[in-house]
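Person: Show me a sequence?

Helper:
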Amino acid sequence: MNLFHALDPTHVTYLLVFGAGAVGGLLGLMAFGFVGRPAETRRREAAPDGRQAARNARLEALTETMPGVPCEFRVGPDGEQSIAFIGDGATELLGLAPEPDGFYERFVEHIPESHRGAFLRSVEEAVTTRSRWWQEVPFDRPDGERIWLLGSAEPDLQEKGVLFRGLLLNITERIDEERRREQVIRRVTDAIVEVDAEWCFTLVNDQAEALYGMKEEHLLGRTLWDVFPRTKGTRFEEEYRWVMRSREPVRFEEHFERMGAWFDIQIYPNPDGGLAFYFDDVTERKEREEKLREREELLRSITENVTEGIYRSTSEEGIVYANSAFVEMFGYESRDELRAADPSTFYADPAEREALYRQEDEQGGLDGVEVQFQRNDGSTFTGLLSTQQVDAPDGNQVYNDGAVTEITQRKRQEQMLKSRRRKIEALYRATSGLLSVENRDAVPGRIAEVLQEVFGFPLRHIGLVEGEMLVPKKTVGEDLSRMPEPKAQPLSEDLVATRAIQAGEAVVVESTGGLENDLDYGTLSTLAGIPIGGHGAVVVGKEAGTFDALDLRLLEVLGGYATLVLGRLEREERLVQAREEAEEAAQLKSAMLANMSHEVRTPLMSMIGSADLLREDLEEAGLEGEPAEMAEQIFRSGQRLRETLDSVLELSRLESGAYTLDDDSAYLDVVVREVAQELNLRAHEKGIQLEVGSPGASVEAGLDETAVRRIVRNLVENAIKFTPEGGKVQVRVEPEDEETALLAVEDTGVGIAEEAREDIFDAFKQESEGLDREYEGSGLGLSIVDRLTTMLGGTIEVESEKGTGTRFAVRLPR
């Protein structure tokens, strides 16, 4: 006979009640009937007849003596459900008021989540199949105490449906006892001892004998305090005595100095009033943990001093460690806040995140993968992600270690470099038409086309100087609500264009209100003026914002191109007139030479400007190596070619008589020192000693200072060029007499062969010529020195010996 039928010959048995609903199955499950209520409301049947009332009275009387909480639950033929009865013991056992409404939901809330699903499934199965229900389940009372319940119920099929009757029992003591026994069985390899209520040993197993180094017969009957007096006053004594008093089990880990070992100790109260001790030597584990802590502290110390974001995670716990850089990188205030976040939210793109997960699983890690991450505030940044899987020292855990390097700034720089490169390339493509313009009137239109193709500013205006007026030639306004009307203005007017012409460089006006004129600028607020030499100016404008520094530099390059073109056109016009009026072929030759030099300067200035911009961009981006060396080589080669062209122009001016001299006083010793200072770095880089002799007093002469400076510079540069590493160059100036000053430049260089000295001052002449010549240069430096010396009324002499050195002596009138 089972428990239910033993209660009542009429089969009035009691049940831990559950209901199965016709609506959705699981909803019926929610009708589980731990639903107690006052006696007058516990029955949901129609008003009972006398027999039913008597039955209920007997049922209530039985609940006073039952060892659990009885319940009845009815499921009607159409699936309707009702609580028929629940005992008042629900309050004492469960700590829940026996009110029917919402009782089941309240009961389920107190079942731990770890067991709740299994509990609900068992109820649903019993109600659906009309079969016996049996389940053990933990229950957390409102006061925090956890108890274990055994629910058992059997269905009684009736004409009007089915009635479940059953009982809910408290089995907490049995569960605890079973767990204790399981622990005993599991710990049979541990050292086990038992003492009675007087602390005398009553049991010592073999492991304990080996641990203490004493046989059981030597310990039985002796007190724990006699055998281990050093435990007095320690945590051991505190824990032992607490268990003896409270009769509650305890577990702790502690180091026992006498044995130099760590123990995991479990203490249980025995029914005879004594205690049972279980000792597990965990010294090796503690040592491993200590070493692991030391390694982790070292790792933490290292990672806290790096700029990369370092983290460690597990599949179960998520992120278990992150350095400060990682926390700050993702915008969190603390590690705890970071760990509480969902790691999946660290990725800006869910699809990219899933792809990375798959890639990591396939490859066992990631190596420098570029990822778009998301910060706590929703903003994004670009990072390089590297990960790897690492086994824990105990082999029971797999860590996912990773590092994130933020490269947002680098990406911005790369994008900026690409944008600048595209803009520079577009500028040079667009200016090809400008360089081929054949007349002055076509220049403004071509400049406007370049502005549109490369920059696209709302306002694009070009004005050229005609006499004392700045005359508008081309004006384009796009997307401007009100366009200013261009008019010719005096050069004396305060305009951004006239400011640029006067300054000789780009001028930015951040507010048109700062210009002192009466012009109506419409909706324009910011203007920039770029001079076209003295020929005019380009003006661009915006309704809001500022101008990018690169745009201004490129506009200046464009202005330089336009200056060269307009200058070329003017020179060509003058050349035509000169050709018609020239009386001597030498004059025409020199003018043509000057024009050709300027023609070469046009693409050359483009090359130098581009190389200079590229050098700056590479330096700002921190890029070195071949690209930087190439940019430097292009820049320096362009500079050398420009110097050659300058020499050609200067020579042509000298030959044509266009070079004018002034007769202001010049201090020759000052000029020599300044030139030597300018060239000292070049000499130092080549490993040459540059010395300047002191005249003892200032050497003044009524000569053109610019011409004297050119003579000194050309001679010293020539000496440095032809002097090998380790050599010496000496420069000195002194009064030779009251009417003459002597400038001497002497080197220990390669010298000049005797047969070459006769032509050394001829233009484009060097001792070694052809493609295989040893030294670079145009061969114009000494030719210019000779002509300037002659124009100043002086003389020049050269003394040289091949392989020994050369001395130039220039005598100038004072």
